[in-house]
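Data deposition worksheet. Section B asks for the primary sequence of the deposited chain exactly as it was used as input, without tags or linkers unless they were present during the calculation. Section C holds the resulting structure in token form. Section D is free text for depositor observations; keep each observation to a single sentence. Incomplete worksheets are returned to the depositor.
Section A, Depositor: J.P.
Section B:
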Amino acid sequence: MMCLVHSRSNIKLEIEEGKISILVIENPSIMREVLLELEVQLQGESGDFVLSADYEPVSIHKNLVLVKDPLAIDCNDKKILTKLYQNIADEEKVKYCIERDKFDEAYLEYLRELCLLSPLPLVYDQRLSLAELLKTAHVVIDHTIENYVESLWLYIKVMGDLLHIKVFAFVNLKCFLSNDELNLLYKQCYYEQKLLLLIESYDSPYRTDEKKCIVDVDGCVIYC
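Section C:
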């Protein structure tokens, strides 16, 4: 179980497998303040949010991702691709040492031949890093999925598998999902043991698979 606490607002969210945690903030100014502060802490700055795992504090920016615009999820942002290329490079060193030497030899020979086509004196890198090769080849995660819930799930899986994110926080995600789509996403999170936190501006009908913390228009905190 993980717990997210905001001491100034008296918000305490227990985020665990088998239940979806919902934070409803009905007061716009409090919503703005909470999101801005959380975003600052995700950049590594200090603030009033504390994230813990089994009652031990952990780094927020290493364990939580905040998606403010659920329609703009990007499985190929710079942080994701950097980690992806690093993982592939680590695997290459273990499994493809000989193949890489053969590739470099063929690459350099071909490059030498190409450079002879020009009358000008040319120089070039003797060896490209694998990250440079992957970037040049435009190796990215295939996210051409028409189903929106599948796209959401791919993003969650990528962030969890590559960056080891533990808590996935989405702002007003319920505005974009039907009840059936919400059911599907919840089931996927249960099955894969992903921790989902929905930060919503408005309350929604009661569900047995959710637990809520509601900050009403007066700033009072209600748990249900």
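Section D:
The chain has seven helices and ten strands.
The helical segments are 28-42, 60-63, 78-95, 97-115, 130-136, 148-163, 179-192.
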